[in-house]
Amino acid sequence: MSLMSERAAWLSPPRPGSRLLGWLGPLLVTAFAAFFRFARLGQPQAVVFDETYYAKDALALLKFGVEHSTIKDAKGKDLADPLILKGQISGIWTDGGSFVAHPPAGKWMIAAGEWLFGMTPFGWRFTAALVGTLSVLILARVTRRMTGSTLLGCAAGLLLALDGLHLVASRTAILDIFVMFWVLAAFGCLVVDRDVARARLADRLDDRVDDLAFGPGLGMRWWRLGAGVCLGLACGTKWSGLFFVMAFGAMTFLWDSGARRAAGVRHPFTGALRYDALPAFVAVPVVSAVTYVASWSGWFASDIGWGRHWADGRGGTFSFVPAPLRSFWHYHAQIMRFHTGLDSHHRYQSWPWDWPILRRPVAFYYSEPSGCGAAKCSREILGLGTPAIWWAAIPALAILLGWWLVRRDWRAGAASLGYAAGLLPWFYYAAGDRTMFAFYATPMIPFMVLAIVLVLGLLLGPADDSGRRLVGATLGGAYLLTVLANFYLLYPILTAEVITYDAWRLRIWFDSWI
After folding, report:
1. pLDDT digits (tens, 9 = 90+) for 412-426
2. Its pTM surpasses 0.90
């Protein structure tokens, strides 16, 4: 084998397996996920938890282009939700634009469902269920690309489909499922970009064998540009998307440097600085920022948005900046003060170190109806991750970290980084006693699943070791069955099924889950 072909095989190895099965398997798993996310999606016929904010904000975006105030009583209690559930939405608006703590991108996605299906629980939950379902397909395909195994890709999709918190977030009109979706989509774009860039590097080095000091430039990289758009939409849903902008921006640059090193470039880091750093900065942080600002286009176009005309007629040091931009900055300063000052106690608040062990899930909805055939019935939506997944992810991530330290396996590093970006920044805010909830961890769920699947791949071992693969397949199959049984047990309290109180209590393993 020539040096050129060796370089190409090392940098961009062919993906094994059937292309047909590589799509068919993940699509079947996605159909499985869709069933659980769309079945009885309109139940309960109620405004669940933070739907009281986002469902109405989404409707306001459709009607006014910006979030709008709704009617309340003298004590500030919402009066609009009961009218909405009765189908009476014309009289719910009052005053003008309302202050909101989160950008509009995720609420525009909720609005799409309301536009299609009306201002009903099914309508405002539809897009959440859709992106939750599509995230299963994305993770299955991305995992297949990373591992070269359709089996492991399907296992990743199946585990994501069977996670309780992912299911609840997919069936509720809250924003975290949209942050997770765009973060995962950005990660997928960067994984594809890594493969495309390495193949392009091999081709250009083959054409220019004397260019081994720093390596060649790689031209326009559309997949990385797509990642920047996705990350901008994640930030345009919740500011926590910024954690992933920083993490993924560093990750894609390090992948570029590693590719040049693997290609035999003598100064790979310098080469990456020369040819890749600026394009990566433009494609990830800059494009993300532009996309983020664009997500506020309704506010810029409106005359009634909160603080839209704050800067009109005001002078000062920055008076040369157009008034809409100064008003935009002032609004963001208000949002920042809100988030940094949010420290009021909530019965379901928890800390980041609680999230991996599922110490304090959030009860999105609870009632005690009749109709279960017992003296006392329960109906709940509990934002609880599947313990067999979350608890298994802890040792899996420890194994991956060790694997990355010893072998520098890029897949182990990527999964660990995604998990860390979704968890560790919250420790900083915990130091300031900020109020936070377990469902803030939703964006890190795909990376937990990826970590588990990569460890399952280690258990399976190489294809030519039949004895090890038999043991690994047995252990992996037993684990997946355990997850399935765990999910089946918890399903009634994830989806507001009416069950007996005793059946509900059987599923509440710890008092902290109440």
Report:
1. 999 999 999 999 999
2. yes
